[in-house]
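Think of the structure tokens as a kind of shorthand, similar to the way a musician reads notation: each symbol stands for something richer, in this case the local conformation of the backbone. In the example below we present two proteins back to back. Begin with the first one, reading the sequence and then the tokens, and try to describe in your own words what changes along the chain.
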Amino acid sequence: MITVKRLQAHPLKHSRRGDGLTAWLFVAPILLGILIFAVYPIVFSLYASFTRWNLINPPVWNGLENYITLFTKDPTFPLTIQNTLLFALCTVLIGAFLSLLLALLMNIKCTGQNFFRALIFAPIIVPTAAAALTWSWLYEPSSAGIINAGLKLFGIGPVPWLNNTHFALWAIIIEAIWAQLGFNAVIYLAGLQSIPTEYYEAAEIDGANTVNKFIHITLPGISPITFFVLVTSIINAIQIFDIPWVMTQGGPSNATQMIVMYLYVNAFRLQRMGLASAMGYIVFIAIMIITFINFRLSKMWVFYEETI
């Protein structure tokens, strides 16, 4: 007589399947939210960039016409690129230099050190719109403007900071540098304090002076911090919107018109969503290219502790 043994599923397998199903049930709402509010808008905006769409009528496919229009038929778009690049170049380079300088000063032990650190970080706490409105008041061409009132003491002015095509962009650059200065300075300060003091002690024994220690120890030691500051500052600068919008709304004569501001105007004022979507992907591609170049070049100048 042949005995047939009945096979039974191991209870551990059922337990694992149940745990896996429970985990997916918990993750499902988050995944659904990402698909609806992140993935779908990205994919649809890519499709919209190849259409003519005014938010009222259905999108009409027009191929590369939006991209061709921006680079060949729209006189304002090249100006927005020029303004954005100049803004990014000045705010990133000058801002990084001043932030490092402030961090070096904050790293010096003195009376009231914590107070000065908090004072330098304060602009980050102030809402961007409120800070921009305050700077607009400071830039007032009349005697009410503190900056022009100070220049008047030296026989200069009044300077029409926000009403002149030669000064408006530089006025916004100054405000943007001030707004980001405290955050980057604190990041640099953390990097400075993470450098082992043994390196400086060994350099002093070898007879290195302050300049040599700064060039050969401090700069390589904070190079990862510098890389982080450059990448994040470039991305923020290319996407700048709030400061110039509050202070000038792109004027005078589009002298402060940035690419994201122009995207907003085309999308929600002129209702040219296809053109605005094309601008959005141009900004996205530009950020990706610049970030990729930064990562590739970082291998030449970014050092970590074991390579210093």
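Once you have a description of the first chain, move to the second and do the same.
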Amino acid sequence: MNVPAIIGRYEVRGLLGEGGMATVLEGWDPVLHRTLAIKLVDKTKLEQETKDEALSRFKREAQAAARLTHANVVQVYEYGEEGDFCFIAMEHVAGKPLTAYLSEGLKS
């Protein structure tokens, strides 16, 4: 994915991971001076026949997560759309990816 250097007001600092529909980036909020995670969907990469439903689902994901307040759920700071991209700006939690924990569990 060709990732922009700035998404909304956030500076992109690196790649954290990629999934089937989205890319997760490390970002920096220059206003609040904090690191965050940015989940980014490139609308041009979605299949035309399922694009509207996928984008609607992505927005609902942001809305649902924003309503949750729990120590084990990341905070959602913002949902936005900019050009060919939709994004969710959220709390960044440092640590190992979930796959690392899952593979450790399988070895036990």
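Compare your description with these statements about the second chain. The first strand starts at residue 6 and ends at 7.
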